[in-house]
Amino acid sequence: MLTKSYSKTKKNTCKVTFELPPSVNAQAIALVGEFNAWQPDATPMKRKRDGSFSAALNLATQHEYRFRYLLDGERWENEVNADQFVPNGFGSEDSVVRL
User: Fold this and answer.
1) Could you give the CA distance from residue 4 to residue 98 in angstroms, rounded to a whole number?
2) To 10 degrees, the CA torsion angle through 55, 80, 49, 17?
3) Backbone phi, then psi, for 24, in 5-degree steps?
4) Would strands 64-71 and 75-77 be described as parallel, antiparallel, or unpaired?
5) Cα 73 to chain center, whole Å?
6) What is the pLDDT of residues 13-40, one digit of tens each?
7) Which helix H or strand E contains 99, and what residues bound it?
8) Which of 21, 22, 34, 87 has the most CB atoms at less than 10 Å from its CB?
9) H, E, C per residue of 23-88
C-alpha cells in the first residue's frame, strides 16, 4: 500500500509511506528507486509486529519517482497501488509514484 501525506508547512514536500503485507513472505525488504539512486542498502523497510513491512520518505512534490521493492536481496516486486507502471530496461516494469 502507498499513502501520501502532503505537508501543510512545507509546501514542496510529501511524506510517502510504502507498506507491504506479511503475505509477501520475505525476511528483509529494501525500498529501491530513483529517490535513493537505486541503492538496495539505502532504504531498508522495517518489519512491524504483525509481519508487514513499512518505510516512509519525505519526497519533493511536482515530481514522479520510479521504484520497486527488493525482497531478500533477490526478488523484485512492484507496488500494486502505484500511480503508474512503466517498462524498464530489464524486461519488466517499475512502479511510479506521482506527487
Assistant:
1) 10
2) 30
3) -70, -20
4) antiparallel
5) 15
6) 999 999 999 999 999 999 999 999 999 9
7) none
8) 34
9) HHCCCCEEEEEHHHCCCCCCCECEECCCCCEEEEEEEECCCEEEEEEEECCCEEECCCCCCEEEEC
CA distances from 63 to 5, 49, 91, 97 (A): 15, 33, 24, 9
Measured at the CA of 59, the angle between CA 11 and CA 37, to 5 degrees, comes to 150
Cell numbers 510529501 correspond to: 14
Grid cell locating 86: 512503466
Joined grid coordinates for residue 43: 532504504
Over the stretch 61-90, which tens digit does the pLDDT of each residue have? Answer: 999 999 999 999 999 999 999 999 999 999
**Which triple of cell numbers denotes residue 12?**
514542496
